[in-house]
Amino acid sequence: MTRCSVPLAVLVLGATAAGALAQDRPTDQWLTNPVDRGTFDSYLQFFTYNADLPFAANVSATTTDEGVRTEHLTFQSTPGMRVTALLYHPSGVDLGAVPAVVFLPGGVGRGKDAARYVGLSRFLARAGITVLAIDMLHFGERADGFFTTFDEVEKHERLYNNDAEYLEWVQQTVKDVSRAFDFLVAERGVAASRVGLVGVSRGGVLATIAGGADDRFAAVAGLHTGHFDYFEDGHRAAACPANYIGRISPRPVFLLSAENDGDFLPEMAIRPLHRLAREPKTIRWTPGGHGAMTDEDRGALAQWLRRNLP
Amino acid sequence: MSFTNRAPIGVVLACCATASLAAQSDRPTDQWVTNPVDDRTFETYLDFFAYESSLPLEFTITGSDTVDGLIEERLTFQSTPGMKVTARTHRPHGADSRGGVVFLHGGVPNGKDSPNVVSISRVMARAGWTVLAIDLLYFGERKTDLLQTFSAQEKADKLYNQRSLYLDFAIQTVKDVVGRTHDVLVEEYDVLPEQVALLGRSRGAQMAMIAGGADRRFAAVALLHGGHFDALENGHRPAACGANYIGRINPRPLLMINGEADTDYLPDVAVRPLQRLLDRQSTIRWTDASHGIVTEEDLSMLVDWLQTEVPQ
Asked: Of A269, B224, B269, B291, which has the fewest CB atoms closer than 10 Å, so is most exposed?
């Protein structure tokens, strides 16, 4: 009994310390009080782009494996800005007959090519969903020297906590996402009413923003995402997901989070954002830490997408 | 004989005037020139003009010369990550600077190096000002593939009437101007921060009204032959509309010099409606000139006005 009580005391102390740490984390006013409709509408002009710009798409490689056809391609998003992407789709099907999603990876050096994102994209493709996974600016094949190590300190110092630069990056990413939608519809014949948006971690933050700003996406899923990550200390109002997530409604939103996420802290960064999401919303919690995803989670996501992109 | 000659001339003149008025009334406009956005909406724009003040300027002088007692330097500095601004300065030799002027050129291919920009800069430098003339993105030494011929039609088709791209251009210009030119003058040329004015000509004037409204560090703003829409412009986003900024330069002094014969910024369609948004303290000068013609009297007035309005 006594031997057990010591570790218990340590656990209690640890939990208290963790709670205190969480309480000390920065936040902002929009998480409790998002901007009004007029302010939100004024943001939208900053995400507009020239829809007449040629995509000038270039497919550099095509493979077919286990029923999934994968194309490695690039397209022009805004003048002179090329997006690198992987398009996964069930082989032998008409893309106009199946739903599709634009997929945003997390803030990792390999971008869309990270094994975990390739695996999830292929899983969704096998479930009959076309996936256009794009690299966000500065990541993956769009690495441009802005980052050198891609460690958390560098990412936060140079981008996530650099509020002017971060807002500019958010603008470009939202434009890239909207152009990815256009590409799927105009170049690949996907039905415009059947395109969703999925993002993981930092990509989930951006999916929340892009999904709120571009109401053509029929459904939006944010996986392991939240308001501030652990090292984030502030952003401009127009780059805050809290000002967008509630605007996704009446389109459905799916939010998957990990109970022990040490990056987006559940009580500080996730649950308050969940409260701002409006119906219809599906909130799913999974065991484990940041990025954990079980087969059941993947299955739930695929089912939800198929149900909401009919 | 003389009577018969006069009658057709009078008829022709009357027809021309009517046609001109009709042409002016047919020109596109927008709601902001009569009803600018409210303060809350305006405040949302400012986030998008923010810049990283801790970014190294990477200030580099690439050439230096002395011309008629003036020191002229060519230089570059970093505005936003990876974005180099090309510029030149004109300043009096061996004299304490009176203050600084940031100069934005019109939509001409050689940008800051156009003879008109250089000559106006030299007049101000001889009056004791340190003039920093920068190239706008896509112009001068910052030329890209976007504009090739720099004809009015090409500029309208590829930039000024491309609303999203034009908004990006306005944002970058404001970051170049607001973000860094002020810093360059203060940090590299020892100009006092409260003694920096902003001057724009034609398209540069459109950008100067936006930058001057967005940032309050400029002590005074002068606009030469600027207006709302030029002759080929047909629309822009509200955040790229000078009408939503020009009234916010107040209470800082503003000078507008425009020509009655301007066929680019039509006086009754593109200039006077904008001037109605100004407070009574603003200084407005009309000349008989056509677009871009700046007389010696105009320049004298500009210099006198700067010396009066920018506290020494």
From this structure: B291
Percent pLDDT > 70 in chain A is 92
Q: Is the ipTM of this complex over 0.95?
A: no
pLDDT digits (tens, 9 = 90+) for A143-157: 999 999 999 999 999
Helices A163-182 and B39-48 pack at an angle, to 10 degrees, of 90
pLDDT at B95: 65
Measured in residues, chain A has a length of: 310
- Distance between CA atoms of residues A41 and A307, nearest Å: 30
HEC string for B24-88: HHHCCCCHHHCCCCCHHHHHHHHHHCCCCCCCCCCCEEEEEEEECCEEEEEEEEEEECCEEEEEE
Put simply, the answer to whether B37 touches A42 (Cβ < 8 Å) is yes
- Cβ-Cβ contacts under 8 Å, B164 against chain A: 48-50
Spell out which residues of chain A touch residue B158, defining contact as CB-CB under 8 Å: none
Q: For an interface test with A, which of B48, B54, B143 has the most A Cβ atoms less than 10 Å from its Cβ? A: B48
Instruction: Give the tokens for residue A225.
Output: 């995402």
Separation of alpha carbons B264 and A97, rounded Å = 52
Other Cβ atoms less than 10 A from the Cβ of A40: the count is: 19
Q: Worst-scoring range by mean pLDDT, A23-37, A139-153, B194-208, B246-260?
A: A23-37
The two tokens of residue B281 are 């303290």
For the full predicted model, state whether its pTM sits above 0.90. no
